[in-house]
Amino acid sequence: SNKRAVVQYEKAMKVLYSGKFSQGILELEKVLKYDPDFIEVHLTLGDYYYDIRNIEKAEQHYRAASVIDSSFYPIVWVRLGDIYKDQGLYQPARSCYESFLKYETGKKDDIAAVRKSLAEVAFRENAVGNPVPFRQRIPNSRADSMSFCSAASRQ
Asked: How far apart (Å, rounded) are the C-alpha atoms in residues 35 and 1?
């Protein structure tokens, strides 16, 4: 990163730490004008936008960070995977989770959580690919209706 970008980054982080989030984010965006490949800025912006549920911008910054250096901060793959999983994009989610497992070798709790997410994605893919037909049981008579309701209440 160039010197001007680093100075601007440090300024932006001080603003963020003081609790002025909107101003800090604007300052971080300025850093990218000096150095569009400043990975820490993309990660910080991605986290901020993820936290406020601006998923489009979070994805944009996480994706940029992963392109700059795919192994720099492996958790970025989890965040991208979660974004895609929540959107029902299971193939990209699986790919991101697998990338995390490729780069992260030490944090056993994170690895276990990502394996669980991979299993969830596989389950969701299977469920979407193999839907179960819905059959609504409509009682024929009042007696049927009563037996249906009492059977349901016993469960």
From this structure: 6
Cα separation values, 110 from 82, 105, 116, 124, 141, Å? 13, 10, 10, 21, 55
Secondary structure (H, E, C), 62-104? HHHHHHHCCCCCCHHHHHHHHHHHHCCCHHHHHHHHHHHHHHC
Tokens linked to 32: 């990218």
CB atoms within 10 A of CB 148: 13
Contacts 24+ apart (CB under 8 A), 122-125: 122/94, 124/85, 124/88, 124/90, 125/90, 125/91, 125/94
When pLDDT is cut at 50, 70 and 90, the band that residue 15 belongs to is very high
Rounded to an integer, what is the distance from CA 115 to the centroid of its chain?
Answer: 15
Instruction: Give this prediction's pTM.
Output: 0.79
